[in-house]
Amino acid sequence: MPDPADQNARAHAEDAGQPQRRRRDLRRADGELTDVRTGTMPAVTPNTSSQPDAGQPATTRTSWAEAAAAADEAKQATPVPAPTRPPASAEPAAAATTSARQSDSAQQVPPMPADAPSDTPAFRRSRPTVADTIADSPMPDFISSPGLFVKEQKPRPVGGFRGALYKLTGGAWNLGPGAKQRQEDELARRISRQLQGSYNTAVLSLKGGIGKTSTTVGVGLTLAEYRGDAPCAIDANPDSGDLVERALGEGIYQQASPRTITDLLKNIESVDSLTALARYMHHAGRLHLIAGEQDPEVSDSLTAEEYLRIRKLVSSYYSVALTDCGTGVTHNAMSGILQSADNLVIAAGYAVSGAKRARSTLHWLASHGYEDLARNAIVVITDKDEVSSRVDKDAIEEHLAGICRELIAVPHDRGVADGDLVTLDVLKPETRRAYKEIAAAIVDGYR
C-alpha cells in the first residue's frame, strides 16, 4: 500500500506545478502577457486558496525547482490544459485524493477549446487624448464662417466724408459705409440675385409719351450693369417703336443696317445658338436688344403666336427679358405678351390724364383674367413734363400705390425728357437710383 506521505507530497508537487507551467507558457506581446498556446490574454482571477484559512493547518509546499520539474514531466506525458486549482482542503488526505482523481481524469477528458478573444478592450483610458478631442470636434464650415481665421473687415466706403477720410489715411481709418451706401449695396444685391429659369417683364401703358420706352431702356441698362448675365429687351410696339434708337442713338442705329423682329421671324428656324441669334440683335453695352419693325403696315401684323415664338427663343439664352409694348392692350400681340409675362411695369405720369390711364390699365387687366399681374404690377410715375402746382402729386401717388404692389417715382431729368438717347452716365443720381429701385422690384417679383 503506498505511503500516504508520498502521495501527499506528489499531489502537492503537481498542484504547485500547475500555475508554474501556466506561467512558463505566457509570453509578453507588446508589453502585455499572452498565452502562447491560445494567443489570448489569460483571465486573471484572485487566488483565494493562497491564503490559509484561520484555524486550519497550513499546507506544505515544495520548492520552485521541484515544481518546475514535476510540471515538465506532466506536460510531456499529457499535453492537456491544467484544470482550475481547487481550494486548499482542511484534510491533507482529502486533498491528496482529489489531486489523484484529477490526474487520472485528465487522461480521459479531451482538451477544452480555447476561449474566444473578447471584444472588450484590455484597458480603458481614464481621460481623452488630443487625437480624440480633434476627432470628436465638428469640422468648421469655411463657406458659411467668414472671419474664422481672419478678422472681418468693414466694407470700403465710397464717396462722402467717409470715403474721403479713407483715401486720405490710406485705409487706416475705415468708418465703413454710411446709411446711403448700405441702401445702394442692398439694391445691387437684390438686382444681381441669381435666377433659375427665364423671366419676362412687360412694360406697357395706355398713353404714349409718358416714359414707357425710356423706362425700358433705363431699367435694361441698370440690369446689365449689376447682373452677371446680360438681359434682353424686345421691341414689340406695333406703332414703329424706337426702343433701339433710345438705347443706341438714332444715327448709330441707321448706320448699322438694322435687322428687326420681322427678319428674325423669317429665319427663326435656323437660329439654334446664341451666336446665330446675335445676328438679329443690337447691343448697348451689355444690354441686348431686338429692334421693332419700322414699317407701320408690317409692324401691326405681329401676332400673339409670333411673339410667343420669339419669347421661347429668347428664354433659351437669357434669364431676364423686358418687352416694350405698344400704347394699347388690344392689339394682336398683346395677348401673347400678357400670357408669357411674369410681372408688369405700368408707366404713368403726374398729369391727370396719365394717372387716370394708369388706373384704367390696372382695372382692365383685373377684369380680363390678369388679376395677379395687376395686383403685382409696379407703377412707375415719371415726372417727364413738369406740371403746375395745382396738381396734387401726393394724392396721385397715394391713389395708385393702393392698387398695385409697388409705386416708384422717377424725378424730372433732361436726359429722359428730351426723348433722345438714354445713357446712365448723364442721368441724375436720383434718376439712376429710381431705375435701380425699379430693377430690384422687378427681380423681386421673379419667383
From TrEMBL:
Say which domain of life the source belongs to: Bacteria
Instruction: Give me the stretches of Low complexity compositional bias.
Output: 58-79, 87-108
Q: Which GO terms describe its biological process?
A: negative regulation of cell division
Annotated region (Disordered), positions in chain: 1-125
Gene3D superfamilies in the record, alphabetically? P-loop containing nucleotide triphosphate hydrolases
Q: Which GO terms describe its molecular function?
A: ATP binding; ATP hydrolysis activity
Q: Which InterPro entries match?
A: P-loop_NTPase, ParA/MinD_ATPase
- Gene Ontology annotations for the cellular component aspect, listed alphabetically: cytoplasmic side of plasma membrane; cytosol
Q: What is this protein called?
A: MinD/ParA family protein
The organism is Arthrobacter nitrophenolicus
What taxonomic classification does the UniProt entry list for its organism?
Bacteria, Bacillati, Actinomycetota, Actinomycetes, Micrococcales
